[in-house]
Write a sequence for this structure.
């Protein structure tokens, strides 16, 4: 994460804010996500059966890929305001799952600040364009507009 002052915000709007570290989406991670969400569809958890699908093997849940944005933000993609008291996920304006992530592939997130608004004194809403890249693939796994709120003071 990169720490900036409130005065620096206008300098970042419309610009890339960073890229995360690579993360391997292992079959174990997919299986654990299936257990937590109770989504055990065979395309995620049965490598033998999944070989006969258009994917050619198991793939991560789309919601798993989406949930990795939190880690990607922490490892290099998101700005953090100095003197932050608290930051919260505010949701999404847009999410598109573009390309499935095969088990064993590496992914990383790319972030661009597209909007920043002071909603209340000391409460900033940031909108990021985010893209999850799959190593070696032209098409991203996911594109989204992610909303976050930071409170400073």
């Amino acid at each position: 994460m990169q720490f900036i002052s409130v005065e620096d915000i206008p300098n970042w709007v419309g610009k890339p804010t960073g890229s995360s570290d690579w993360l391997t989406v292992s079959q174990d991670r997919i299986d654990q996500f299936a257990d937590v969400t109770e989504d055990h569809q065979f395309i995620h958890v049965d490598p033998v059966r999944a070989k006969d699908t258009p994917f050619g093997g198991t793939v991560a849940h789309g919601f798993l890929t989406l949930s990795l944005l939190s880690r990607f933000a922490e490892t290099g993609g998101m700005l953090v305001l100095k003197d932050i008291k608290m930051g919260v996920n505010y949701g999404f304006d847009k999410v598109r799952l573009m390309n499935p992530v095969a088990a064993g592939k590496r992914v990383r997130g790319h972030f661009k600040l597209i909007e920043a608004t002071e909603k209340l004194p000391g409460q900033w809403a940031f909108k990021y364009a985010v893209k999850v890249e799959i190593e070696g693939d032209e098409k991203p796994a996911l594109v989204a507009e992610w909303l976050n709120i930071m409170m400073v003071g």
